[in-house]
Amino acid sequence: MKIYLQIFLVLIFPVALLVFGIVPLNSRGYVLSFAVLGATIFAITEKTSLKSLGIRFDNFKMSLLPYTLFTTLGVIGLFLAANFLGQKPVDQWWTYSHLQWAFLPISFVQELAYRAYFQTKLQRRVKPFLAILVIAFLYSGMHILWKDPLILAMAFVGGLSWGYLWYKYPNLILLVLSHSILNFLAIYLNFFPWLITEFFSLK
User: Fold this and answer.
1) CB contact set of 75 (below 8 Å; sequence gap of 6+)
2) What CA–CA distance (Å, rounded) separates 106 from 89?
3) pLDDT at position 60
4) Taking the C-alpha atoms of 179, 75, 135 and 97 in order, what is their torsion angle to the nearest 10 degrees?
5) Nearest to 31 by CA among 176, 155, 139
6) Please, what is the average pLDDT of the chain?
7) Helices (H), ranges, the chain
8) Partner of 122 at 20 to 30 A CA spacing, among 35, 94, 95, 178?
């Protein structure tokens, strides 16, 4: 029961406060911070090993190919989708903090909280497929705060894919690299132009 309470307190309750207007929507950036802080505190108090969190090298070689294949397919898919939709890359992308550096820590904290900690814990309680599905749903649910169906759909597909990769090949280093590359590219190809101008502009 402990893991279910943790999931409710860290991944569901803060999002619900924002969705129902109890907490101002402009505080949504703190939701992810809260999730990461909660997962970190739980991991420390439970003495979770770095290996359990996927910070390891013993499975790096065997995990490299599947992560590379998935990321490559994701890159190709994003370019094809951008071409089909007539998307043009972000002009002067280097002036936006997200495309300079922020995509790296954002990807890291998301994967640390959702996959490395919560999915791993949930997999021990329920069938792996159900754990992957639940965490992907909660992960995409966090993105509902941006009120964009496309970002919601992409987050759910990404959540399922990274969740499966994590289950089969639990390596946080490769997981974060995959997430970072696809995160950067999705923003760079201007799928969410409002996102970087609202949150990450350095101009």
Assistant:
1) 181, 182, 185
2) 21
3) 96
4) 40
5) 139
6) 86
7) 2-7, 13-19, 29-45, 60-85, 97, 103-111, 120-123, 128-142, 149-168, 172-188, 193-199
8) 178
Rounded CA gap, 110 and 14, in Å? 15
**Global pTM exceeds 0.90:** no
Look-up: residue for tokens 């970087």?
A: 196
**In the numeric block, which tokens belong to residue 202?**
């350095």
- Contact predicate 49/159, CB 8 Å: no
- Nearest one of 151, 181, 134 to 11, comparing CA atoms: 134
Tell me the two tokens of residue 120: 């791993």
The number of beta carbons lying within 10 Å of the beta carbon of residue 4 is: 12
Look at residue 197 in the predicted model and tell me its pLDDT: 58
The stretch 8-21 carries a mean pLDDT of: 85
User: In angstroms, rounded to a whole number, what is the distance separating the alpha carbons of residues 10 and 5?
Assistant: 8
Tell me if 162 sits within 8 A of 190, measured CB to CB.
no
Residue type at 138?
A: L
Does residue 180 surpass a pLDDT of 60?
Answer: yes
Residue 113: both structure tokens together? 């909280």
At 166, the amino acid letter reads W
User: Is-contact 181 99, C-beta < 8 A?
Assistant: no
Instruction: Please give the span between the terminal C-alpha atoms of the chain, in angstroms, as a whole number.
Output: 48
